[in-house]
Amino acid sequence: MVDKNKPQSDKPGGWLSRFAPGVRKIVSRRETPDNLWVKDPDTGDMLYRSELEGSLWVTPSGRHMRIDAPTRLRFTFDGGEYESIDTPDVPEDPLKFSDGRSYRDRLNAARKASGRKDTMAIGFGPVGGQSAVVIVQDFTFMGGSLGMAAGEAFIKAAREAVARQVPLICFTAAGGARMQEGALSLMQMARTTLAIDEIKQAKLPYAVVLTDPTTGGVTASYAMLGDVHLAEPGALIGFAGPRVIEATIREKLPPGFQRAEYLQEKGMVDRVVARGELPQILGQILSMLMGGSRLAA
Q1: What is the pTM of this model?
Q2: Which domains does the chain have, with CATH numbers?
């Protein structure tokens, strides 16, 4: 039995659809794009995406949000103009690894989500007036994990810098080694170190910009071998995470431990630089290290 005193829901066959079939379509709420707003991780405020993009993805609270490789390259090169350099191909899933899901499936899913082949992207162009090869580690691709593809890309970037006789800039962002590649991943720590030695032998500068987060084997290799180390404000930088360290030593860590500002105080980072100032600062430092020469031929 239908309760005549109970309001009827607006479903097909309900009073609204029976008496005014077109009303629902007219007054229905306009769909809002899912990516129109971004939540500030510090304050919880909803931020307009276009305004965030205009501020280089730095929130009003000062948080330097993580950005993908194409965005980073665009922000870094003068006028957003640069020559893209292809990264080398490497064997896929050489260990036939599976942790309940095959590594190949995980790679395909990451590529579909990011539109990228792997975590590294390389570009060449002017940075603050100084020609440079720039390699960017993209945390959105499997946490920026260091694997064979990342190692080969770094070596390619280093050799491009030597061939063009320009500095190399590396923007790091990683959660550690890519476990699906086992010891092949760990080998990249030594291989990238040897590539940096090629840059040193060519008497060219190597600058590192540490972004949030830079951890694990990346920190233990090419992230800490630069001639100069800059960092974005608030970036987490270390080998193991703070929770792991606290659990190991059973002590509370100091406030701001492993953050860029703390590491600058301790001498591990040369300077903490806001994202918008990085191209100019990098250009000035690298020009000085290059003996005053600016744009390369």
Answers
A1: 0.86
A2: 28-63 (no CATH), 66-289 (3.90.226.10)
